[in-house]
Amino acid sequence: MTVLTPDRCSINTATLGYKAPIGQVIDAVARHGFGAIAPWRREIEGSDVCAIARHIRDAGLAVSGYCRSSAIPADTPERRRAQYEENCRAISDAAELGAACFVIVAGGLPTDSRDLDGARTQVEDGLARLLEEARRLRVALAIEPLHPMYAADRCCINTLSQALDICDRLDPDGEGGIGVAIDAYHVWWDPRLRSDIDRAGCSQRIAAFHICDWLVPTTDLLMDRGMIGDGVIDLSSMLRGIAAAGFAGHAEIEIFSNNWWAVESEEVLRSCAERVGAI
Ligand code: ZN
Protein backbone atom coordinates (compact mmCIF):
# COMPACT_ATOMS: atom_id res chain seq x y z
CA MET A 1 0.00 0.00 0.00
CA THR A 2 2.98 2.34 -0.08
CA VAL A 3 1.91 3.73 -3.44
CA LEU A 4 -1.58 5.09 -3.07
CA THR A 5 -4.09 5.01 -5.88
CA PRO A 6 -7.63 6.38 -5.56
CA ASP A 7 -9.09 2.87 -5.36
CA ARG A 8 -7.01 2.34 -2.18
CA CYS A 9 -8.48 5.54 -0.75
CA SER A 10 -11.74 6.60 0.81
CA ILE A 11 -13.44 9.97 0.77
CA ASN A 12 -14.70 11.13 4.12
CA THR A 13 -17.77 13.10 3.12
CA ALA A 14 -16.79 16.02 5.39
CA THR A 15 -14.18 16.76 2.72
CA LEU A 16 -16.98 17.85 0.39
CA GLY A 17 -18.71 20.07 2.93
CA TYR A 18 -22.08 18.26 3.05
CA LYS A 19 -23.32 20.38 0.16
CA ALA A 20 -25.06 17.65 -1.83
CA PRO A 21 -27.44 14.86 -0.77
CA ILE A 22 -25.64 11.64 0.17
CA GLY A 23 -26.85 9.83 -2.97
CA GLN A 24 -25.10 12.36 -5.22
CA VAL A 25 -21.98 12.22 -3.07
CA ILE A 26 -21.82 8.42 -3.33
CA ASP A 27 -22.06 8.59 -7.13
CA ALA A 28 -19.41 11.32 -7.40
CA VAL A 29 -16.95 9.47 -5.15
CA ALA A 30 -17.36 6.29 -7.21
CA ARG A 31 -17.08 8.17 -10.50
CA HIS A 32 -13.69 9.56 -9.47
CA GLY A 33 -12.37 6.07 -8.88
CA PHE A 34 -12.21 5.98 -5.09
CA GLY A 35 -12.64 2.63 -3.40
CA ALA A 36 -14.57 3.68 -0.33
CA ILE A 37 -16.57 6.38 1.40
CA ALA A 38 -16.97 7.43 5.03
CA PRO A 39 -20.36 9.07 5.64
CA TRP A 40 -21.46 11.13 8.62
CA ARG A 41 -24.48 10.57 10.83
CA ARG A 42 -26.02 13.87 9.71
CA GLU A 43 -26.31 12.36 6.20
CA ILE A 44 -27.72 9.05 7.34
CA GLU A 45 -29.94 9.50 10.38
CA GLY A 46 -33.58 10.03 9.56
CA SER A 47 -33.12 8.42 6.14
CA ASP A 48 -33.55 4.88 4.89
CA VAL A 49 -30.22 3.46 6.07
CA CYS A 50 -30.78 0.18 4.28
CA ALA A 51 -31.34 1.96 0.94
CA ILE A 52 -28.22 4.10 1.42
CA ALA A 53 -26.19 0.98 2.26
CA ARG A 54 -27.45 -0.64 -0.93
CA HIS A 55 -26.62 2.46 -2.99
CA ILE A 56 -23.04 2.43 -1.62
CA ARG A 57 -22.64 -1.27 -2.38
CA ASP A 58 -24.12 -0.91 -5.86
CA ALA A 59 -21.66 1.93 -6.56
CA GLY A 60 -18.86 -0.51 -5.77
CA LEU A 61 -17.72 1.36 -2.68
CA ALA A 62 -16.67 0.04 0.71
CA VAL A 63 -17.40 2.02 3.88
CA SER A 64 -14.09 2.80 5.58
CA GLY A 65 -15.78 4.22 8.67
CA TYR A 66 -18.94 5.79 10.02
CA CYS A 67 -18.55 9.23 11.64
CA ARG A 68 -18.93 9.61 14.53
CA SER A 69 -19.85 9.08 18.15
CA SER A 70 -21.70 11.50 20.40
CA ALA A 71 -19.59 12.65 23.35
CA ILE A 72 -19.30 10.03 26.06
CA PRO A 73 -18.76 12.17 29.20
CA ALA A 74 -21.64 14.28 30.51
CA ASP A 75 -22.50 16.34 33.56
CA THR A 76 -25.49 14.24 34.59
CA PRO A 77 -26.27 10.52 34.52
CA GLU A 78 -29.38 11.24 32.42
CA ARG A 79 -27.39 13.03 29.74
CA ARG A 80 -24.72 10.33 29.82
CA ARG A 81 -27.39 7.70 29.29
CA ALA A 82 -28.99 9.64 26.41
CA GLN A 83 -25.59 9.94 24.70
CA TYR A 84 -24.96 6.23 25.24
CA GLU A 85 -28.27 5.43 23.58
CA GLU A 86 -27.47 7.71 20.63
CA ASN A 87 -24.19 5.91 20.22
CA CYS A 88 -25.87 2.50 20.31
CA ARG A 89 -28.25 3.58 17.55
CA ALA A 90 -25.31 4.86 15.50
CA ILE A 91 -23.44 1.57 15.96
CA SER A 92 -26.50 -0.21 14.65
CA ASP A 93 -26.49 2.08 11.57
CA ALA A 94 -22.76 1.43 11.13
CA ALA A 95 -23.53 -2.29 11.05
CA GLU A 96 -26.26 -1.73 8.48
CA LEU A 97 -23.83 0.27 6.33
CA GLY A 98 -21.19 -2.44 6.58
CA ALA A 99 -18.74 0.11 7.98
CA ALA A 100 -15.21 -1.05 8.75
CA CYS A 101 -15.49 0.88 12.01
CA PHE A 102 -17.52 3.35 14.03
CA VAL A 103 -15.34 6.35 14.78
CA ILE A 104 -15.20 7.35 18.42
CA VAL A 105 -14.53 11.03 19.06
CA ALA A 106 -14.78 10.65 22.78
CA GLY A 107 -15.88 14.09 23.93
CA GLY A 108 -14.21 16.64 26.16
CA LEU A 109 -14.99 18.12 29.55
CA PRO A 110 -18.60 18.09 30.69
CA THR A 111 -20.24 21.51 31.10
CA ASP A 112 -18.63 23.62 33.85
CA SER A 113 -16.11 20.90 34.70
CA ARG A 114 -12.35 21.16 35.17
CA ASP A 115 -12.01 17.45 35.94
CA LEU A 116 -10.06 16.15 32.94
CA ASP A 117 -9.12 12.90 34.70
CA GLY A 118 -12.79 12.37 35.53
CA ALA A 119 -13.80 12.94 31.91
CA ARG A 120 -11.22 10.39 30.79
CA THR A 121 -12.54 7.88 33.31
CA GLN A 122 -16.06 8.45 31.99
CA VAL A 123 -14.80 7.81 28.46
CA GLU A 124 -13.23 4.51 29.41
CA ASP A 125 -16.28 3.36 31.40
CA GLY A 126 -18.56 4.40 28.52
CA LEU A 127 -16.42 2.60 25.96
CA ALA A 128 -16.54 -0.58 28.01
CA ARG A 129 -20.34 -0.53 27.69
CA LEU A 130 -20.30 0.42 24.00
CA LEU A 131 -17.84 -2.37 23.27
CA GLU A 132 -20.45 -4.96 24.30
CA GLU A 133 -22.89 -3.47 21.80
CA ALA A 134 -20.21 -3.18 19.09
CA ARG A 135 -19.23 -6.82 19.49
CA ARG A 136 -22.86 -7.91 19.41
CA LEU A 137 -23.33 -6.06 16.11
CA ARG A 138 -19.85 -6.92 14.80
CA VAL A 139 -18.72 -3.33 14.33
CA ALA A 140 -15.26 -2.25 15.47
CA LEU A 141 -15.01 0.86 17.61
CA ALA A 142 -12.17 3.10 16.41
CA ILE A 143 -10.96 5.48 19.11
CA GLU A 144 -9.64 8.58 17.36
CA PRO A 145 -7.17 10.54 19.44
CA LEU A 146 -7.60 14.24 18.65
CA HIS A 147 -4.91 16.92 18.80
CA PRO A 148 -4.62 18.27 22.38
CA MET A 149 -6.04 21.64 21.29
CA TYR A 150 -9.44 19.90 21.34
CA ALA A 151 -9.11 18.33 24.81
CA ALA A 152 -11.65 20.66 26.40
CA ASP A 153 -14.44 20.67 23.88
CA ARG A 154 -14.14 17.69 21.56
CA CYS A 155 -11.98 14.87 22.76
CA CYS A 156 -10.00 14.20 25.91
CA ILE A 157 -8.16 11.28 24.31
CA ASN A 158 -5.20 13.05 22.75
CA THR A 159 -2.41 10.65 21.91
CA LEU A 160 -2.16 7.32 20.21
CA SER A 161 -0.48 5.90 23.32
CA GLN A 162 -3.45 6.90 25.43
CA ALA A 163 -5.92 5.36 22.98
CA LEU A 164 -3.92 2.14 22.75
CA ASP A 165 -3.71 1.90 26.54
CA ILE A 166 -7.52 2.05 26.67
CA CYS A 167 -7.77 -0.66 24.00
CA ASP A 168 -5.42 -2.89 25.98
CA ARG A 169 -7.35 -2.41 29.21
CA LEU A 170 -10.76 -3.03 27.62
CA ASP A 171 -9.62 -5.88 25.40
CA PRO A 172 -6.72 -7.51 27.25
CA ASP A 173 -7.03 -10.80 25.38
CA GLY A 174 -7.11 -9.33 21.88
CA GLU A 175 -10.66 -10.50 21.24
CA GLY A 176 -11.14 -7.39 19.06
CA GLY A 177 -14.00 -4.98 18.51
CA ILE A 178 -11.93 -1.99 19.56
CA GLY A 179 -9.01 -0.23 17.89
CA VAL A 180 -7.78 3.18 16.86
CA ALA A 181 -8.36 5.64 14.03
CA ILE A 182 -5.00 7.20 13.24
CA ASP A 183 -5.59 10.67 11.81
CA ALA A 184 -2.41 12.27 10.50
CA TYR A 185 -3.71 15.75 11.37
CA HIS A 186 -4.07 14.87 15.05
CA VAL A 187 -0.97 12.81 15.72
CA TRP A 188 1.76 13.87 13.26
CA TRP A 189 3.57 15.95 15.92
CA ASP A 190 3.83 13.13 18.48
CA PRO A 191 7.45 11.99 19.10
CA ARG A 192 6.09 8.53 19.89
CA LEU A 193 4.13 8.26 16.67
CA ARG A 194 6.37 5.77 14.91
CA SER A 195 6.64 3.41 17.88
CA ASP A 196 2.91 3.74 18.60
CA ILE A 197 2.04 2.83 15.01
CA ASP A 198 4.24 -0.26 15.38
CA ARG A 199 2.55 -1.05 18.69
CA ALA A 200 -0.92 -0.63 17.14
CA GLY A 201 0.09 -2.94 14.32
CA CYS A 202 1.41 -5.63 16.64
CA SER A 203 -1.90 -5.74 18.48
CA GLN A 204 -3.93 -5.42 15.24
CA ARG A 205 -5.61 -2.27 16.47
CA ILE A 206 -5.42 -0.03 13.40
CA ALA A 207 -9.03 0.38 12.32
CA ALA A 208 -8.68 3.50 10.20
CA PHE A 209 -6.11 5.87 8.73
CA HIS A 210 -7.19 9.46 8.01
CA ILE A 211 -5.12 11.81 5.88
CA CYS A 212 -4.90 15.51 5.09
CA ASP A 213 -2.15 18.05 5.78
CA TRP A 214 -1.10 20.59 8.44
CA LEU A 215 -0.82 24.07 7.00
CA VAL A 216 1.69 26.65 8.19
CA PRO A 217 0.30 28.91 9.40
CA THR A 218 -2.95 27.26 10.46
CA THR A 219 -5.58 29.99 10.70
CA ASP A 220 -8.52 28.09 12.20
CA LEU A 221 -8.39 25.30 14.79
CA LEU A 222 -11.07 23.26 13.06
CA MET A 223 -11.65 24.47 9.53
CA ASP A 224 -8.20 24.97 8.05
CA ARG A 225 -6.91 21.53 7.22
CA GLY A 226 -4.73 21.30 4.16
CA MET A 227 -5.01 19.31 0.96
CA ILE A 228 -2.53 16.43 0.82
CA GLY A 229 0.88 17.82 -0.10
CA ASP A 230 0.15 21.45 0.86
CA GLY A 231 1.49 21.24 4.41
CA VAL A 232 4.25 19.83 6.61
CA ILE A 233 3.12 16.30 7.50
CA ASP A 234 5.45 13.57 6.25
CA LEU A 235 2.54 11.51 4.92
CA SER A 236 4.84 9.30 2.91
CA SER A 237 6.68 8.10 5.99
CA MET A 238 3.41 7.67 7.91
CA LEU A 239 1.92 5.67 5.07
CA ARG A 240 4.94 3.37 5.00
CA GLY A 241 4.74 2.88 8.78
CA ILE A 242 1.02 2.12 8.68
CA ALA A 243 1.44 -0.33 5.80
CA ALA A 244 4.36 -2.03 7.57
CA ALA A 245 2.14 -2.31 10.65
CA GLY A 246 -0.25 -4.41 8.61
CA PHE A 247 -3.09 -1.99 7.89
CA ALA A 248 -4.74 -3.02 4.62
CA GLY A 249 -7.79 -0.77 4.71
CA HIS A 250 -8.49 2.39 2.73
CA ALA A 251 -6.60 5.60 3.47
CA GLU A 252 -9.41 8.04 4.22
CA ILE A 253 -9.13 11.62 3.00
CA GLU A 254 -10.72 13.93 5.56
CA ILE A 255 -10.31 17.66 4.99
CA PHE A 256 -12.32 20.13 7.04
CA SER A 257 -11.53 23.40 5.32
CA ASN A 258 -13.41 26.61 4.67
CA ASN A 259 -11.22 27.05 1.61
CA TRP A 260 -11.91 23.63 0.12
CA TRP A 261 -15.58 23.75 1.05
CA ALA A 262 -15.84 26.82 -1.20
CA VAL A 263 -14.50 24.80 -4.13
CA GLU A 264 -16.80 22.81 -6.37
CA SER A 265 -16.97 19.14 -5.28
CA GLU A 266 -15.83 17.78 -8.64
CA GLU A 267 -12.67 19.88 -8.37
CA VAL A 268 -12.03 18.73 -4.78
CA LEU A 269 -12.36 15.09 -5.81
CA ARG A 270 -10.06 15.63 -8.79
CA SER A 271 -7.44 17.22 -6.52
CA CYS A 272 -7.72 14.39 -3.97
CA ALA A 273 -7.26 11.76 -6.69
CA GLU A 274 -4.21 13.56 -8.07
CA ARG A 275 -2.56 14.24 -4.73
CA VAL A 276 -2.78 10.75 -3.24
CA GLY A 277 -0.58 9.46 -6.04
CA ALA A 278 2.13 11.92 -5.04
CA ILE A 279 2.37 10.90 -1.37
ZN1 ZN B 1 -10.23 11.86 11.42
Describe the structure.
The protein has helices at about 20-30, 40-45, 50-60, 75-95, 115-135, 160-170, 185, 195-200, 235-245, 260, 265-275, and strands at about 10, 35-40, 60-65, 100-105, 140-145, 180-185, 205-210, 250-255. The protein has about 280 residues and is of the alpha/beta class. The protein has an eight-stranded parallel β-sheet. Helix 4 (about 75-95) runs parallel beside helix 5 and helix 8 runs parallel beside helix 9. It starts with 8 loop residues before the first strand and ends with a helix. The mean pLDDT is about 95. Zinc ion binds near residues 181 and 183.
- Average pLDDT rating: 97
Shape category = globular
Order of the strands making up the biggest sheet: 3-2-1-8-7-6-5-4
Q: Nearest-angstrom radius of gyration? A: 18 Å
Q: What is the tally of beta strands?
A: 8
Structural class: alpha/beta
Low-confidence stretches: none
Q: What distance lies between the first and last C-alpha atoms, to the nearest angstrom?
A: 11 Å
How are the SSEs ordered, and which strands pair?
Layout: E1 9-12, H1 22-31, E2 36-38, H2 41-44, H3 49-58, E3 62-63, H4 77-97, E4 102-104, H5 116-137, E5 141-143, H6 160-170, E6 178-183, H7 184-187, H8 193-202, E7 206-211, H9 235-244, E8 251-253, H10 258-261, H11 265-276
Parallel strand pairs: 1-2, 1-8, 2-3, 4-5, 5-6, 6-7, 7-8
Bound molecules: zinc ion.
